[in-house]
Amino acid sequence: MENATPVAKGPFVVKDCDLITQATGIRASNLKEFRDGLSRAPVESVYHHFWGRLMRPQFDEPEYNNDFASWTMRGLNDKVLAERLSMVVPSDFEDLEDLRREILEVLDQRSSDSDLLPWAGGEQKFFFLQSQIVIFDTGLTFDHPLDMASYLPSFSTGSIFFHFIDARGRTEHRRDDFSLWLRGFGEEFRPLARMLTGIDPYFSSLKEIRKLVTQTFQHYFEERP
């Protein structure tokens, strides 16, 4: 149930961010090693391989939605497992440990399908990575949602990542910063907040998410009496 108590109202302070990729020292060449590595990797590595990929330059349309699925197809040539991993939606889980457990279950199910453990050669090893977020102050603030609406198309992809993706891991009820701020105005913008929380970012690029957020704001204000 949604908390009816408004949060404190104040200006929306726009932040930007970047991700610094770090090695974990864990790697895998086959399915067994991959499962073992995933069970030992820092939970931040799970986050990196599902969400951090949004911050990396994409030169073409990725076939799969997370790094685990992409590698099992490219490195192990296991299309069945790649498709199963691609169907795991991180926003469906309460936290990253629940997400990790689901991935491990998918791997265990695939292992039980076949005794084969295909080896990936040389350059096709999977390297478990993690990332550290670096936050920047843009100097941009908004006192009212209507003022923000016209500026949203110019938000950097880093700002969209910080306020719409990263926010879900650090705010109450896993809300994005936009909808949480809107709740501070009481009932007035509660419908807009609900529309924003209904956007699932997993299947979109940051540019697409920015477009969806912008359209949601603009349509809301266009339809207001």
From the structure above, extract its key features.
225 residues, alpha+beta, two-stranded antiparallel sheet, single chain, 15% strand, disordered N terminus, 10 helices
Structure description:
The chain has 225 residues and is an alpha+beta fold. The protein folds into two domains: 20-130, no CATH class; 137-223, no CATH class. Helix content is 44%, strand content 15%. The chain has helices at 31-40, 43-50, 67-74, 79-86, 96-113, 145-149, 157-165, 177-183, 190-197, 206-223, and strands at residues 12-28, 126-142. Strands 1-2 form a two-stranded antiparallel ribbon. Residues 1-6 have low confidence and may be disordered.
Counting H and I runs of at least 4 residues, what is the number of helices? 10
Beta strands, count: 2
Mean pLDDT: 89
Beta-strand fraction estimate: 15-25%
Number of domains: 2
**Sheet of most strands:** 2 strands, antiparallel
Pick out the low-confidence regions: 1-6
* Content-based structural category: alpha+beta
Give the helices and strands, then pairings:
Layout: E1 12-28, H1 31-40, H2 43-50, H3 67-74, H4 79-86, H5 96-113, E2 126-142, H6 145-149, H7 157-165, H8 177-183, H9 190-197, H10 206-223
Antiparallel strand pairs: 1-2
Task: Explain briefly what this protein structure is.
With 225 residues, this protein is α+β, with helices and mostly antiparallel strands.
